[in-house]
Amino acid sequence: MSITEHLDPIVHVTAGAVQGRATGGVQRFIGIPYAAPPVGALRFAPPSPAPSWTGVRVVTDAGPNAPQRIRPVPGLDVEALIGSGWIAGDDYLTLNVWRPDDDRTGLPVMVFVHGGGFVIGSKDAPVQDGTTFARDGIVCVAINYRMGIDGFLPIPGVPTNLGLRDVVAALEWVRAEIDRFGGDPTNVTVFGESAGAMAIADLVTAPVAKGLFARAIIQSGHGGMTRDVGVMQRLVTKLAKLLGIAPTRDGFASVAAEAMLDAVEKVSLPTARIDLRGTDGREPVFGISRFVPVHGDDVLPVQPLDALRDGAGADVDVLIGTNAEEMNLYLVSSGVRDKIGRLLAWFVLRKSQPRAWAVLNAYGAGKRPGGIALTNAMTDLVFRWPARRFAEEHRGRTHVYELEWRSPAFGGELGAAHAIDVPFVFDALACATGSDGLLGEAPPQDVATRMHRLWVDFARDGSLPWVPFDRSTRQVYRIVAGEAAFEPVMPAAPFLP
After folding, report:
1. In this prediction, what percent of the chain has a pLDDT beyond 90?
2. Is residue 65 helix, strand or coil?
3. 141, 354, 387, 476: which has the highest count of C-beta atoms within 10 A?
4. Which domains does the chain show, CATH number per domain?
5. Could you report the per-residue pLDDT of 130-152, keeping only the tens digit for each?
């Protein structure tokens, strides 16, 4: 059927007919269910197919999202990046589709997985609007998934990694339905940032996701932030005690969403007494989030780096990269970078890294302020070096990039911080521009044009204008410079797997 004959286009998917809206040369379908509402008996169950409906379902509003509570970032307007917070409602395992307002078929497909530490975020954050990709001939999809306790706590008697299983279910929906929107189900690229990128990196190696996507773009993410199921049982126990329940499926199912969010906030505080270090003495998430995927189940049988080494995901083309000063988002905006000395920097780092003194010394502690050494070290430990390790171990074609543009926010100190890449990728600078915007007053449109085009070209046919990454030549493409160059091994290398 042609979907260009309708001012407000109607598409028939397996569950029923959906009606979107066509404006500005783009058709938008906002809030299509890809799975049944995860409530009642389905709350702690793997995603099941969305129930069918009769008549035409109008899909023009965002609808509910996963329960969450947003924490403000001092001095920054973060709503454009992560959305306005929790919109309550049961039917939140939904997705958005943007496509060109014409009758083309066989178009490349891009599926975006949002970030937010596996506890916040949604498919509807303004900066993640897929209009610009549809404008450029892509069928773009953005998804919601379960987060926090419901999505990533390995409760005894509950299937593990429910949030990742939701992402897989959304990708299965895309494979089954996207041709009805003009997309090619054999030409799917998944992309995401931060926690969304971590999820994608994990799924590159996951047997349950094999064949669901041809390419993956991993922005400020990697496969190094998973925990052993046994370690995460400490968090199960801690949360159960806070909530006054048994650490079981029935116990957690008895707790309302608001009380769950209260407990998530309490265990997420830096002062919370919870040890999530593994047997090697390392805490792989560095306290940024208590909730991450676990390995040791059917989704992630082994740690992702080990799986890559054994050839998992070799059939997937990967574009992976980072921003040059990732941890500035956390440590500059909070004032921590400029307040702490070497001793306190050591105290902070030793909670996650057993060789904290050696790390800080490798990053110039003693020659520069402790907060600067800590920020630079954590940028590499948390983001940049694990992304390079992913590239080293991936047996398929792998390209690495870095965004080096520096935001002038916070008196020019925010720099190339975490999350600044998203407005450039979506060619949506206006969303993050202004006196309290992440990008300051006048971010460069030419950088957005270049970065967005790189993503579009990669999704179309895998093409990129620089050579793949390998351990010897170590070619990393700098987005602003517009060229690739050799990148030496980082000082963080001896301190991570």
Report:
1. 95
2. coil
3. 141
4. 10-495 (3.40.50.1820)
5. 999 999 999 999 999 999 999 99
**Which one of 222, 394, 418, 452 is the catalytic residue?**
418
User: Which residues fall within 8 angstroms of residue 241, CB to CB, at 6 or more apart?
Assistant: none
Tally of residues, the chain: 497
Catalytic residue among 194, 289, 352, 407: 194
Q: Please tell me which residue, 7 or 409, carries the higher pLDDT value.
A: 409
326 tagged catalytic = yes
Nearest to 35 by CA among 155, 173, 140: 173
Q: Which pLDDT value is given to residue 484?
A: 98
CA distance 444 to 429: 8
Residue 6: count other Cβ atoms within 10 Å of its Cβ. Answer: 15
194 is catalytic: yes
For 338-367, give one letter per residue: b (16+ CB within 10 A) or e. Answer: eebebeebbebbeebbbebeebbbbbebee
Q: What is the mean pLDDT of the chain?
A: 96
Strand, helix or coil for residue 188: strand
Concatenated DSSP letters of 337-378: TTT--HHHHHHHHHTT-TTHHHHHHHTTBTTB-HHHHHHHHH
